[in-house]
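Shapes recur. One chain:

:::
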Amino acid sequence: YPDILVWDEIYLAVHHCLLGHIPATEPAAKSAKVREDSKEEENRLAATTTITTLPHLPPHQQPPSQSGQVTPTQAVPQPATARIQPLHPLTHVKKLYSHPQAWGQCKNFLAAYLKGVERQDVSSTSKAAQLVGDDTTGTSAAISSRIAAELNGLDVLAQGIEDNEGNSTRFFVVRRQSSSPSSSADAVSGSITAAGAGQETAPADDQGGEAAEFKTLVSFTVDHGSPGALADCLEIFKKYGLNLTSINTRPSGEAAWHYIFFVEFMGRKLAEGQGGAVNEALQELDRVAKSWRWLGSWENALLEP
């Protein structure tokens, strides 16, 4: 999608629930009591989240809050513990569905109450809830949201099962670049690849400011047959004092085991002719990388207002 740019980032609180079916053998009175307890637990979680969650911070910087039990092992003699207990017995659960990201966010609860249960990755937590809703055996469960339980006719077996009470996920806001290079919204053109194929643009007001106030995302490929090709590209960011915040890879599609690198760093691309460390670094990257693309610059949402 050569005309798509990252325009902004948003961090949203994510609270996971374990969804499934209450066993038919559970007494009705107990079920009613547990549902009442579920509502009380929901209110408690909402109240404590308001107090302890710091939305502007990533999950690993949030304050810890844990309870529950996990069996110690020789490899892990002092394991982390789950923050909450299930609202219903989970002995009937034989299979779990969820998005891969959710497993890592709920590992303490899973280790304490569902250790050894089969797990299956799916495309989204919503899809996980749908699969459990379609399961007539009633022995599967999904890590998903409370609203997914309502939409799929499922029971909430446990809620707030994430390890970190301030659990959050980052979303990118993307937009199409203007078709006209002279548009006030898109005022700068630059290379998509080292060969100069296509055009990319930066916001007209993308000028000045401290590097930490902004982030930029670029992608590039290297000559996999050239020793040190990746190191040469990364050295450019160090040379211009650009602090890298993440590096990710995806298959490039050019050949087996060839990758495209996605690098995010502090700073922003300025308007043409404005200079700046980011602009100079991208010009040098154009000479070193096999191909590259600027994917957008935006304000750093992690900064305190």
